[in-house]
Amino acid sequence: MSNRFKIIEIDKCVLYKIKHKDHIIVYLYMDDMLILGRIECIIKSIKKMLFIKFDMKDLGVANIKH
User: Fold this and answer.
1) Burial level of 18, CB count in 10 A (0-12/13-18/19+)?
2) Which of 31, 34, 29 is nearest to 61 (CA)?
3) Are 50 and 39 in contact, with CB atoms under 8 Å apart?
4) What are the residue boundaries of the structural domains of the chain, listed by start?
5) pLDDT (tens digit, 9 = 90+) per residue, 41-62?
6) pTM to 2 decimal places
7) Calpha distance 37→41 (Å, rounded)
8) CA distances from 52 to 22, 40, 48, 56, 60 (A)
């Protein structure tokens, strides 16, 4: 919350913010997290901020199966 993310009231596991006209969405599920956005450098900066605050590892790009 200190980084200006807002909680979506319908689902409290979803946070979002708008940065440089791009929507950044963070979905939390138990001990997993999915970060969505179109601008890679913004996603990298969010990951960097999270690495500083939390003990975590990056599993890379999510695979979406159809």
Assistant:
1) exposed
2) 34
3) no
4) 6-53
5) 888 988 898 899 889 888 888 8
6) 0.76
7) 10
8) 23, 19, 6, 9, 18
HSE of 49, CA atoms in CB hemisphere, 13 A: 12
Amino acid type, 54? F
Name the band, by pLDDT with cuts 50, 70 and 90, for residue 29.
confident
Residue 19's contacts (CB-CB under 8 Å, 6 or more residues apart) are 42
> Measured between alpha carbons, how far is 12 from 56 in angstroms, rounded to an integer?
21
Question: What burial class does residue 24 get, using C-beta atoms within 10 Å of its C-beta: 0-12 exposed, 13-18 middle, 19+ buried?
Answer: buried
CA distances from 7 to 10, 24, 28, 34, 37 (A): 9, 12, 11, 15, 16
